[in-house]
Amino acid sequence: MKKQRCVYITGGSSGIGHSLAKQYAYAGDNVVLIARDQAKLDAAVRDCKACANNALQGIAGVSIDVSDIDNLPTRVTAVIEEHGEPDILILCAGIAGNKTFLQMSSSEFDTLIAVNFTASREMARCILPAMLKKRRGKIVFMSSMSGLMGVYGYSGYCASKYAITGFAQALQQELYDTGVNAIIVCPTEVATPMIAAETDTVLPQTRLLKDLAGTLPPDRAAGIIIKGIDKNRDIVLTGFVPRLFDFSHRVFPGLFRTITRLIIGYASRKPQDIKRV
Q1: Is the pTM of this model over 0.90?
Q2: Does 271 reside within a domain?
């Protein structure tokens, strides 16, 4: 019989985090969703309970601003006292920002780093000591294909996701032989509310590059991610196309840059003709 796990998910009220929460609830696990908006959390909890394996599962939503790092340790301690220590921590909270470097203000850039990287780093700091003491646990960092390669119009977003990737890779080495795993997830674009909010303002160069990689439904992405987590993969890529992009970028960097330059040049010359596929 499969052991029931306790899963904490930041950004659990929408997008990938919401889909992950539903699938863990369906699998019979206890799930704690963490996000800022209590109304969205309440709706997500109802969705998870509707998917739950049995009525005795613990499914809760806790309103925390994970970017408030000064108060985060106290808030997380209170959650642990009420709901127990997590066996799996999945760090999905994040924001996007599609502007070129000079279009983006310093404040906007810093906010991307604070929400996407610093909040995940400090959430991991709150949870990791207990996992090390038990010599088991998994911390899952939600990076992106934009954390493996640069994308036009995502200078701030890429910086935040590269920070996650580099930090988590170093942490993986620090966790050798501890029983605790750090897992990096690098999905291609997923059809989340965050991405939908960009629809009317996305730069044509960004849109064309992302269309080539494709867009996944959240539930499909969540299923792939959970399989990767279960297998303790160091890095999880969500399908053949992301793996192809990653391989080409690493093995044939000159060719990859040339193709990317041609795509950006085309999108820049005829922005009115670039439509979402």
Answers
A1: yes
A2: no
